Amino acid sequence: MESALFSPYTIKNVTLKNRIVMSPMCMYSSHNEDGMLQDWHYTHYVSRAVGQVGLIMVEATAVTPQGRISPQDLGIWSDDHVPGLKKLVEMIKAYGSKTSIQIAHAGRKATVTGDIVAPSAIAFNESYKTPKELTINEIKETIAAFKDGARRAKEAGFDIIEIHGAHGYLINEFLSPLSNKREDEYGGSPENRYRFLEEVIEAVQEVWDGPLFVRVSANDYAEGGLTPTDYVQYAKRMKDQGVDLIDVSSGAVVPAKIDAYPGYQVGFADKIRNEANIPTGAVGLITKAVQAEEILKNNRADLIFIARELLRDPYWPRTAAKELGVSIDSPKQYERGW
What is the rounded distance in angstroms from the CA atom of residue 230 to the CA atom of residue 179? Predict the structure, then answer.
């Protein structure tokens, strides 16, 4: 049987051997608050490459110390981070997987010591600190930090970069009217709220010409918030800027009740893909190969991002291939048991 899930996919000059992507998932495992990779990260990521995942995406990696979700987050704010990331890239590629990294800033959802920042001085909820509103100069400095992070990702040898614009972190905070109450050129209209992401993309592209993804939260799930229809328009802007794929998640910019069920976000990826005419990745409670096949064969998305199921089963591609009756290569060391 021909399988869409195990067909190759080419983006610019990068060809993935299958459509399975390891979704970025924070490990909160960096010691000493220095943002450095630990032995855990090498074991964690490389085992999924051994398991035949097509694209391994490293977790949200902070472009500034202030932009960490937690003090244990990985960092890409210093040139000192590059050697460890380079080693990880080389180890992953040795097993035939392509590599990506998600560059990020947590904004008002940072839980680090000291001041945190956001488009507007509004706390996420009563458990979070109230952020400082970013000045124009600080906005420009943060955009430069994303650019420097992209340069370091290139130096480390990553095949693909993803800009984290989802889950209520800084870029998402600028996009949503629920968290962005600014009255200057970075707030108010949809165009102004998009400006920060627009300038981040432009800055990254000054140092990066490889495939570029953006992760979005396509639904705020709250009155007055953004909807998938709004994100179709944003996706068109991203496409015009040269973004290659939208990684479509949802929620978390404000506290909201989300009715999560298998594939609950796939409709958003479908809508953005087919109305904005841009490739998308689908993510969210996709656990079975038949789910992935349906999504791909019906042109609802182009890549399948697997998260928690890859935590449970590092060899999920093998599990999926067995489910579909497809034969895939095994690491030679595992042939007798594959």
Answer: 16
Q: Classify residue 100 as left (phi > 0), alpha (psi -120 to 50) or beta.
A: beta
pTM of the model: 0.97
Helices and strands (DSSP H and E) totals, the chain: 10, 12
Measured CA angle at 228 (ends 222, 232), to 5 deg? 145
Beta-strand pair 9-11/14-16: antiparallel
Determine the Cα–Cα distance for residues 97 and 95; give it in Å rounded to an integer. 6
Query: At which residue do the structure tokens 């981040």 appear?
Result: 200
CA quadruple 246, 250, 255, 260: dihedral, nearest 10: -160
Q: Among all chains, which residue has been given the structure tokens 């979704």?
A: 23
Task: Give the Cβ contact number of residue 61 at 10 Å.
Answer: 27
DSSP 315: T
pLDDT tens string 213-266: 999 999 999 999 999 999 999 999 999 999 999 999 999 999 999 999 999 999
Q: What is the pLDDT confidence band of residue 137, given thresholds at 50, 70 and 90?
A: very high
CA atoms within 13 A on the CB side of 127: 5
In the chain, domain spans = 9-337
Q: Are 232 and 265 in contact (CB under 8 A)?
A: no
Phi-psi domain of 33 (left: phi exceeds 0; alpha: psi -120 through 50; beta: other): left
Q: How many CA atoms lie within 13 A of 66 on its CB side?
A: 17
Cα torsion 62, 45, 309, 290 to 10°: value is 110
Three-point CA angle 304, 156, 169, nearest 5°:
55
Instruction: Return the CATH fold of 9-337.
Output: TIM Barrel (3.20.20)
